[in-house]
Amino acid sequence: MILASQSPRRRELLSAAGFDLEVVPADIDETRLPGEKPVELVGRLASEKAEAVRASLTSAAGDGLLVAADTIVWMGDEALGKPSDAPDAARMLRELSGRTHQVSTGVCALLLNDDATVAARSRFVETTEVTFWDLTDAEIDAYVQTGEPLDKAGAYGIQGAGRLLVRGIVGDYCNVVGLPLARLVRELADLTDDTRDLVARAIKIGGAHA
C-alpha cells in the first residue's frame, strides 16, 4: 500500500493491521476555503492528497492500494490545528477544558491499475466526539511541559499522556489517533472485492501484535 501521509500514528496503525507500506507524503495547499465546514475540509484534503500522490506515480504498489487521510479537531466552526508554541497549546487546552469537541478524519482510498490510473475509489469522513475533564492550570501546565501537545492537532494526543485529559469519547478511538482503521479496512475490502477476508486477516495480524 502507498500511504500518502508522513504521520507516524497512521503508519503504526496500518502496519499493525498487516499492510506493507510505501510512504509518499503529499505536498498540497491545505488552506481552508471561505465558508468551508471542517468535515468538508478534511474530505477535500484527503482527496487532494490522494490525487497529488497518484499523479506523481508511474506504477502502482503491489496491492494497487493508495490511502490518504487528513484529521481535524474542531468545535462549532472553529478548527484547532497544531499549536504554534507552548502558550498557544495551553490556550487550546483551556478552550477544550470541560467541553465536548469533534475529531474528524477524511479518508480517500484508491485502487490503482498497474499504470497508476484509478480503477476504483472510496472517500468518507469519520467523526468522533471527545469530552475533556475540567482541567486545572496545574494539569495544563504539566501536560504542556511534556512537549507532547506541540505537534498534535488540538494540542493533545489521546494515545499518550493526553489520555488523562479525556473524560470520554463517542465513536472510534483510532479515529482520534489519526485514522479510522476499522472502517478503512472494510472500505478496502469492498474496494478490492475481497469479500471481507481482508478484515479477517487484519484481525489475526492485529491480535498477534496485541
Automatic annotation (TrEMBL):
GO MF terms, alphabetically ordered? nucleoside triphosphate diphosphatase activity
Matching Gene3D superfamilies: 3.90.950.10
Q: What class of enzyme is it?
A: hydrolase
Keywords carried by this UniProt record: Cytoplasm, Hydrolase, Nucleotide metabolism
Q: Which SUPFAM superfamilies match?
A: ITPase-like (SSF52972)
Show the catalytic activity: UTP + H2O = UMP + diphosphate + H(+); dTTP + H2O = dTMP + diphosphate + H(+)
Active-site residues, record numbering mapped to chain: D70 (proton acceptor)
Q: Which CDD domains match?
A: Maf (cd00555)
Q: Which GO terms describe its cellular component?
A: cytoplasm
Q: Where is this site: Important for substrate specificity?
A: R9, T71, Q159
A Pfam family that this protein carries is Maf
Q: Which GO terms describe its biological process?
A: nucleotide metabolic process
Keyword Disulfide bond part of the UniProt annotation: no
Q: Which cofactor does it need?
A: a divalent metal cation
Major location category of this protein: cytoplasm
- Provide the E.C. number(s) assigned to this enzyme: 3.6.1.9
Q: Which domain of life is it from?
A: Bacteria
Q: Which family does it belong to?
A: Belongs to the Maf family. YhdE subfamily.
Q: What does this protein do?
A: Nucleoside triphosphate pyrophosphatase that hydrolyzes dTTP and UTP. May have a dual role in cell division arrest and in preventing the incorporation of modified nucleotides into cellular nucleic acids.
What is the protein name given in its UniProt record?
dTTP/UTP pyrophosphatase
